[in-house]
Amino acid sequence: MITKQKSLFGLLFVILICGCSKEDLNAQSSKRNGQEATMNNQTGFTQPVPSEYTRQASQKGSVTRLDYTSKDYAGNGKAITKTAYVYTPYGYNEKGSERYDILYLMHGWGGHAGEYFEMADIKNVFDNLIEKGKIKPLIVVSATFYNANSGSDFGSSVAELRSFHNDFEKHLMPAVEGKYRTYAVSTSDADLKASRSHRAFGGFSLGSVTTWLEFCHDSDYISSFIPMSGSSWYYGGFGDFQIKKNVDFIENLVRDNKLNERGYFIYHAVGTNDAVKEQSYMMAEEMLSRKTFSSEHYVFYQKQDGIHDHFAVREFLYNALPVIFPKKQTSESNNLVLVKGGTFLSTSDTKNPDDYRQHRETVEDFYISKYEVTVALYKSVTGKNPTSARDGTDEMNRPVENISGYDCIDFLNVLSCLEGLEECYNFANGKWTCDFSKNGYRLPTLPEWEYAARGGSLSKGYKYSGSNRLSEVGWYDENSGGHAHQVGLLKPNELGLYDMSGNVGERCWNPSYKGENPAHVGRGGCWIYYEGYCAPDYRFVTTENFKQDGLGIRLVRSKI
Q1: Helices in 437-509 by DSSP H: which ranges?
Q2: Contact yes or no for 333/525 (Cβ under 8 A)
Q3: Rounded to 10 degrees, what is the CA torsion of 505, 511, 512, 514?
Q4: CATH code assigned to 2-324
Q5: Could you give the CA distance from residue 553 to residue 442 in angstroms, rounded to a whole number?
Q6: How far apart are CA 431 and CA 483, in angstroms?
Q7: What confidence score (pLDDT) does residue 169 get?
Q8: What stretch of H or E contains 521?
Q9: Full DSSP string of 275-313
Q10: Is the pTM for the entire model greater than 0.70?
């Protein structure tokens, strides 16, 4: 997601943002700086691809031909059939629950669909990056701007790439993502736009020109771009590059479409001995001279002694993909506490949540987060902040509120995917179900939540979760000041869990519920409630669609 790019680039040094000249770039291309090409610098040199990455991996992905219907946008506008080739990673299951980031790649002049899987062992690099844990498993599409009616001369090629964005938006992207499990939950325009942070586009030579044009036309659908050996030709063309006018357009597009806030990233690359490097240098010089394009959003890297070929492309992709699609586990698993199973005296009747009669309940071992899910975490996963109280004071570290049972399921499944875990929730036969054997994130069951709130096997029998005085452990109507507070400020309970009483209520899973979504019971009270409603045995029954301030969520996993 783009939020993860912000975390990667937010502290980066900007070494050439002002005063960078073409001479500076050429001087850099004449020598290595002796440092690793990390994203600590906005410009630098790529690292060579280790030889083991060019050999076949033990876990090899598959390449499949995909024919789809499009239109001859550069010609007569009639319906045509086009072809793309789709790489799916090892272990991909079209009937599974895991979703995948996706990268679209475009060839240069005279190229063809599928060439990225045929040349310079680039497919082996994809396989090894995934197998060695350098990037998350992803889908890669090697497409073409040509069709059966196209001419392959330079002028015809440019005409085709200029109209390619129509094919991409209306035909290629829906065809691919309607068949393969990306983060687009459907091929509606709204869902394709909503999943932009999981989509990248790159290209080499005229494919680089295509990539810049995709940025100009399709930044609503794509958040990351890898133009390799080429500049923007939105205005002008080869020999008439109009660099300043193109960068003016891009700068205005970023401002008018609020892309700095929504997130975008451009990894621009070229070889130091590339025969057509001049346009890339001019483009980089102009981009780097403007404060709009910080290292969070634009970097320019070179392959030492690289020429205009697919070996340079291989190195660019090897360096760019771990930045754009890092396999980086969030810190959420680090906040989980093991709750050893046991039997306790419970009031959690899963068949009738309104029945408070005590009975013995047994739970198995499980893991639960020390903290309620914060606005920061929820927003980093979903891109949304549904919490209505926004006074700016510790807002991001407050618990997220005002989310429905459906919002919870979506959030938990996506967070699981982002961390490479199995999704727990599945919709079948008109109802959401939870597979407790999966290792992903889920809601606590009613008994699990109560057992953890009471302190589990370490329980001291307190009235509230961690104390007999609610003010020591929970925010409620008398001490909250009318809003939720930053998580973890008060005393934890016996297990080290914070805010189990008060702050926000927490949705729980009730598998006996006969409705569509069993995430319909809230527990623990909240900042709005008086103290009697913040005891571990209190619960309130909602519906799956119900949202309100004071109702949030806490993470649970069955196993790690």
Answers
A1: 446-453, 470-473
A2: no
A3: 90
A4: 3.40.50.1820
A5: 10
A6: 34
A7: 98
A8: strand 521-523
A9: TTHHHHHHHHHHHHTSTTS-TTTEEEEEETT--SSHHHH
A10: no
- State mean pLDDT over 261-282: 96
Residue 389 predicted with pLDDT over 90: no
β 554-557/366-372 pair status: antiparallel
SS (H, E, C) 397-411: HCECCCCCHHHHHHH
Q: How confident is the model at residue 390 (pLDDT cuts 50, 70, 90)?
A: low
Is 3.40.630.30 the CATH classification of the domain at 331-557? Answer: no
The mean per-residue pLDDT over the stretch 280-293 comes to 96
459-470 confidence digits (pLDDT tens): 999 999 999 999
How far is the CA of 476 from the CAs of 390, 495, 508, 531, in angstroms? 19, 21, 20, 6
- Cα–Cα–Cα angle for 321, 323, 329, rounded to 5 degrees: 105
Calpha distance 520→502 (Å, rounded): 18
Are domains 2-324 and 331-557 of this chain identical in fold?
no
pLDDT tens digits, residue range 29-88?
Answer: 333 233 233 345 899 999 999 999 999 999 999 999 999 999 999 999 999 999 999 999
Instruction: Classify 427 as helix, strand or coil.
Output: strand
Which residue type, as a one-letter code, is found at position 139? I
Whole-number Cα distances in Å, 520 to 115, 437, 455? 51, 21, 23
Contacts of 159 (CB under 8 A, 6+ apart): 74
The answer to whether residue 16 scores a pLDDT higher than 50 is no
Taking the CB of residue 64, how many other CB atoms lie within 10 A of it? Answer: 11
User: Rounded CA gap, 142 and 106, in Å?
Assistant: 6
Contacts of 310 (CB under 8 A, 6+ apart): 115, 119, 120, 122, 204
- Cite the beta strand spans of 128-223 per DSSP E: 138-143, 199-204
Domain ranges of the chain: 2-324, 331-557
Residues 6+ apart with CB under 8 A from 185: 191, 194, 195
**What letter represents residue 483's amino acid?**
H
pLDDT above 50 for 284 = yes
φ, ψ for residue 251, nearest 5 deg: -65, -40
Higher pLDDT, 333 or 8: 333
Tokens of 531: 């103290």
